[in-house]
## 1
Amino acid sequence: MKILITALLCGVPFFFYGGPGAHGRRSFVALWDLGHVFYFSLASLWLYKYFQYRFPGHSFSSVSLKVFLIVLFLGVSVEGLQMYSGDRSPDIIDILRNQLGCLITLAILYPQKGYKKIVFLCVVLVLSNVALIPLVRGWTDEWIARNQFPVLSDFETGYEVDRWKSEEKICIQKRIVRHGNQALRVQLTTDKYSGISLEYFQGDWRGFRDLFFSVYLPEDDPLEIVCRVHDSAHANHYNDRFNRKFLLKQGWNDIVVSLEDVENGPRNRLLNLAEIQNFKIFVVEQEKKRLIYLDYVYLE
């Protein structure tokens, strides 16, 4: 038990520091998140053994309820403390992962044999498979992305939408398409900045000349979009990245961005084409909500 306590204490700092960061590989991010399940599975084991020792006459149900509630309290406390950490933010899904770790331990320790234990184990197994979905999706799309490259996203698989981040609603659809059978529908809002960001992709763009992407504008009212690209050394200000405006007209707009221009985008340095970290399309302070469709993002 001393080894278990030591392992649990050593794991505490990782709730507040470390990890894959904002641009880590999706599979690594998903695997890191599953650390909540593993940690609180071990914590539940220690708590269960502790209560068994302190209250030997208590039933499994009584001890399990204590363990479950303590894990819930600890999980909520950790997420609350993360608000004061510069590297973390609270996430209710992490609390659910903590409780899953607790349930896994309790299912294994369940003393009775027969259908009740089988049902308990089956429920926990189903929940565990649900928790594994982000990891499986990450691994799958990373494999697809490696085989697609230099296509960065063509939206021909449902996994590809996970490569993109947006505060607005985005979805893959088949009605308006430039290449293949599917494209991405992007709802833009009236926020100061509204758009979509490619965050998971092959980031070494050396040896390529241009970046291509197609945007469909369904309305006849023109729309100005901004294309930005930054690398891993980005200092998070306008003059340290590539920015360019494009005016969209109704219908498909096939846009070409020179990677030489991207490389020379920052004012005081060359952008590192070997470590591209983000490609974003956005609009600024629109008077009304706008709709665009994105398709066939690739290098040539």
## 2
Amino acid sequence: MIELRTPAEIDQMRPAGRFVASVISATSAAADVGVNLLDLDALAHEMIRAEGATSCYIDYHPSFGGSPFGKVICTSVNDAALHGLPHDYVLRDGDMLSLDFAASVNGWVCDSATTIIVGTPRPDDLALIAATERALAAGIQQARVGKRMGDISAAIGDVAAEASYPVNLDFGGHGVGRTMHGDPHVPNDGRPGRGLKLRAGLVIAIEPWFIPDTDEIYTDDDGWTLRSSTGTRAAHAEHTVAITAAGPIVLTARD
């Protein structure tokens, strides 16, 4: 069911957005050569405790997950595209790391993701990250009253097409509010002018993720981590966006 939020409710979501942004910023800053993924999860866990927030991940067990997630942040490294389960891995120079985090503050949820390079970057990796960020910005620009969901999806897909990246349609954005994943689904490609008409009060997570040479993924033996079928690196970007009469509000904007 699609739910629309009042302006007052969108204001009530702002603390969750600020908190999620702060965790993404802190874990991004902490990620360095020699840092263990479990240390990043521990940092996010401590920030949740200090804030009095609630993790959206630790007990999360959807149909596509092998078991309850058990951690509080997704850490996807190199060919891991989505849902990377933190494990005993020490980051190396040149690793591509995606961080995806959602939490509830005062009963409201926000969700965000970013991709960084640990240590020395490679030009192709920087181009991939830049494309996901452009696609996210293009999708947000279309998140306006009177537009349609296809306008958001097409804007994301156009950026992928410009870079000659294929697009996986199995996983994309989603509604956000009292829970982390709700209606509507926000595909990362589509046709403009088609689909759900966007109305004030709709709050969605927009999240392009690209693999340069394939749209096929498989589930790692951990039951969660989704990896590219070719072993090629993947990048992911995400913000929680409220559609309002005055335009889109990025609730998880980072400083």
## 3
Amino acid sequence: MAQADAAVMQQLAPTGKLRVAIAVAPSPSAQFAIQDGDHYRGVAVTLGTTLANKLGVPAEIIAHKSSGEIQNSAADNKWDVAFLPVDDERKKFVDFGNAYHLLQSTFLVAPGSTIAAVKDADADGVVIGGVANTATFRAARKATPKATHIDFAGVDAAVAAMKANKIQAIALSRESLSGLLGKIAGSRILDDAFLNSSTAVCVPKGKPAALAYAGEFIEEAKASGLVRKSLDEMGLTSSQVAPAGMKP
């Protein structure tokens, strides 16, 4: 990669640090990080800190409960870069660069549920939980208009609701759901999906130099094997790296 010029530094690290926005959940995914004591671990953490090293500035990890929280604070000058699932609604808040991960989202269904496919969840009396203001939950609502949908601030709250028999399904990425199987005995992940998208680097809107540099970084991270290694280190060995040059 070329060395960052003055415009890149001003747009991507205006405070002298790279403020990396991450979302934290009980289990990791290509987007979600996990908390490990006083530290955070995850693909977004690894990519963010590596980008900061290339810029020659410290990384400051800014933790959030969800991608929706990150999206909604994009105009508040609280963070500089994030790694989020892509959808059209989110493009109103952030500018997406290159994709690093192929995203598929589906439902985790409660023990004893008769839901066998996404279409079965689209019915009166089915209550689906998801994380507020996320690409995944927006797609889930579109796919199951007859169901009732409950927004939660984070994944932990949705898990607690399923354990309390308040919801029959949880909408999340397939990776995130895999990490929840052990937390809800007897739960199942559906084989089909309601969302096929990507996870990509993004910056607050109106920062073209920052966006171009971050996109170039993602291409280098895929080519060098860093994205693959970061996924594998979090146990996400079945996750798919996005093809070279892929943009949302």
